[in-house]
Design a protein that fits this description.
The protein has a seven-stranded mixed β-sheet with strand order 2-1-3-4-5-6-7, with helices on both faces. β6, α8 and β7 form a beta-alpha-beta unit. By secondary structure, it is α/β, with parallel strands linked by helices. The longest helix has about 35 residues. The protein folds into three domains: about 80 residues, Chorismate mutase (Chorismate Mutase Domain, subunit A), CATH 1.20.59; about 150 residues, 3-Layer(aba) Sandwich (Rossmann fold), CATH 3.40.50.720; about 100 residues, 6-phosphogluconate dehydrogenase C-terminal fold.
Length: about 350
């Protein structure tokens, strides 16, 4: 007897439930592994093991006639879930007393939630109260009692706060999380010679739910022990270590250029005389993708984005290069120079690794 569509759907639902049950079992086993890691003070991530798991899924996919890409995606999702759950397991031996200066700001709140979920003891120093975490009224006392001091204030305020924190001669690990380091560079370098000071840059916003596979940059300011301790605190992220002087050169492209490109995109649309609803009715896939990114930019913190453009000394050079690039496109189209346009496209393809 031929199975009807509804029966097939019920069969698929039964299989889905079994898949979810097996996923839950896998996560439970991963949590047990996480407890062992916590008790033995082992790092969350084991990249070589993760690659073996992905390889195993891809290999089995061939046997079952499934897509290798789908198998790899599933494996990565399962690994992500496992590491995320393991990251929530308290590590009493690793627990630190933390003071987060600017803890009521958006990024400050994210840091509070993240480190509290890792079992650290959080205090906030800020201009307003916080109903979830205790607030320290005396900055000096808070700094001297903390084992880790994190500065999460606007870029332009960071140098002043850093100087004050360093003046208390604390033995705590100290780092800021600002997006531009130049205004604080000399103070950070001075601090790195006399204390455990480094500089951290989480390459994501406060809406991020998980640190797993997110990028975090740690800048060496002269204290190698500070870099090592900060790396341990952000266990689970993709850590890149760099010299402090290199940070803003990189960020001029990674942040400044990408922000400016998206701001120029929506500013051009705003000047077009065409409403967004009119354009969206005829939107291409590329347009939709660009709008999504630009919408995220325009919805974000205008003051932060201004400081990223204004305080990074390498930004003007990058923006001038952006203008030159736009003019190259303009000239190639206006002068019917197909070869120049094609050359630019091909060079771009090569830059991103070819096909």
């Amino acid at each position: 007897m031929r199975e009807d569509i509804e029966d097939i759907r019920k069969r698929i639902e039964k299989i889905d439930n079994e898949i979810l049950r097996m996923m839950a079992n896998r996560t439970a086993a991963a949590v047990e592994m996480g407890k062992r890691k916590a008790s033995d003070s082992l790092p969350l991530r084991a990249p070589d093991v993760e690659e073996k798991v992905i390889g195993r899924y891809v290999s089995k996919a061939k046997e079952f006639g499934m897509s290798e890409d789908s198998a790899s995606t599933i494996a990565r999702l399962l690994i992500h879930e496992s590491i995320e759950q393991q990251g929530l397991i308290p590590r009493p031996a690793k627990s630190k007393r933390m003071l987060i200066i600017g803890g009521n700001g958006k990024m400050g709140q994210w840091l509070c939630r993240f480190f509290a979920s890792r079992g650290h003891k959080i205090k906030i120093y800020d201009t307003t109260e916080n109903i979830k975490y205790p607030c320290e009224k005396d900055l000096k006392q808070g700094v001297l009692e903390a084992e880790v001091v994190i500065i999460a204030v606007p870029i332009s305020y960071t140098p002043m706060i850093l100087e004050e924190v360093l003046s208390y001669n604390t033995s705590a690990l100290i780092f800021d999380v600002s997006s531009v380091k130049t205004p604080s560079a000399e103070i950070l370098k001075k601090g790195g010679k006399i204390a455990e000071v480094c500089s951290v840059h989480p390459m994501f916003g406060p809406e991020t739910n998980s640190i797993i596979d997110e990028n975090v940059v740690i800048c060496n300011c002269g204290s190698y022990s500070a870099v090592d301790k900060a790396e341990e605190l952000f266990d689970g992220a993709n850590i890149t270590k760099t010299d402090l002087d290199e940070h803003d050169k990189l960020m001029a492209y990674v942040l400044g250029l990408s922000h400016a490109t998206n701001i120029a995109f929506f500013e051009t649309l705003n000047r077009s005389g065409k409403s967004y609803s009119e354009l969206s009715r005829v939107a291409s896939t590329t347009f939709k993708d660009q709008v999504e990114t630009s919408h995220n930019v325009v919805s974000d913190n205008a003051q932060l984005y201004y400081e990223i453009q204004n305080l990074n000394p390498y930004e003007q050079e990058v923006l001038s290069s952006l203008v030159d690039s736009v003019n190259t496109i303009k000239d190639a189209a206006r002068k019917n120079n197909k070869d120049a346009f094609t050359k630019m496209m091909n060079e771009g393809k090569e830059y991103f690794g070819g096909n």
